[in-house]
Every structure is written in C-alpha cells, then in structure tokens.
From TrEMBL:
BP terms from Gene Ontology: response to stress
Family annotation (PANTHER family): TRANSCRIPTIONAL REGULATOR, MARR FAMILY (PTHR33164), TRANSCRIPTIONAL REGULATORY PROTEIN (PTHR33164:SF106)
Domain HTH marR-type: 1-114
Stored InterPro entries: HTH_MarR-typ, MarR/SlyA-like, WH-like_DNA-bd_sf, WH_DNA-bd_sf
Molecular function in Gene Ontology: DNA-binding transcription factor activity
UniProt-listed Pfam families: MarR_2 (PF12802)
Protein name: MarR family transcriptional regulator
Length: 141
C-alpha cells in the first residue's frame, strides 16, 4: 500500500511494474498470464503505466506485429525508491543469518510455494500489500 501510494498507481499496476523490473520485456499477454488477469485488464494496466511514464511499448525487433512492454528508467528509479525502506528492513533481518540459514529459508519458501494449493496462494496474494504472481496459467475469462 505504501509503495502504491508513493508511485500513484494501483495494485495490479504495481504488480506489473514489479514483473517488468524482474523480467525486462514482456507482452501484455505475458503480464496477464503472470498476474492471472485478463488480457483486457493487462492492456489497461500497461496503458496506465505508460501514461505515468513508468513503462513503454515497442515493437519486437524480430516480429513487428508483437508489442513488448518494458520499464523505463523513470519507472525503475521510482520503483526502487518506493521499495527502498522495505529492502533495508529485509537486509537488516537477513544480515543476522548465515549463508546456510538463508539457503534454508529460501528452500523452505520455494517448497511452501510448490505445495500450497492455488486457492491459498490467491488468498495470500490478495492479503499482501504488494501482490505477487500466483499462477503461470491464464485465468478463465
């Protein structure tokens, strides 16, 4: 919620911006798949991010019919600024752990994500201030 307010964007917009920060270039369909939203909603999200100057659309160099969305420098900078406090807190918590302990925590979280039922992942995602991708498959429309 704090990051959303700092960036002046909505929850889906923030999730898409996070995806672009991690993934680089994606199509609106990729964003829809990753966030389990409709392609129409993904297009509206990309429109809002582009209007805010956080993302840009460009034709794929190999297939001019394919449009790729990427984060702008402004988008990357603002995203980093919005999450700086959270990253500092995570660093502070993690700094007390050894490499082996951190590896154990990561393995635990990855395993938890693997076995967690889809409906639980969606509940957890809905309750978080920053949404996380909960499915790689496209939701029925």
């Amino acid at each position: 919620m704090v990051a959303q307010a700092a960036l002046g964007i909505g929850r889906s917009d923030l999730a898409a911006l996070e995806l672009l920060t991690i993934s680089g270039k994606l199509t609106a369909g990729d964003i829809a798949d990753q966030l389990s939203i409709s392609t129409g909603t993904a297009t509206a999200v990309v429109d809002r991010l582009a209007e805010a100057g956080y993302a840009v659309r460009n034709a794929d160099a190999h297939d001019r019919r394919r449009i790729l969305v990427s984060i702008t420098q402004k988008g990357r900078r603002r995203f980093q600024e919005a999450f700086q406090q959270r990253w500092q807190w995570l660093h502070e918590v993690a700094s007390d752990l050894s490499s082996d302990e951190l590896a154990t925590v990561v393995r635990f979280l990855l395993r938890l994500h693997e076995i967690m039922p889809e409906e639980w992942r969606q509940e957890v995602s809905a309750s978080l201030p920053t949404p996380i991708p909960v499915s790689r498959g496209r939701r029925s429309r």
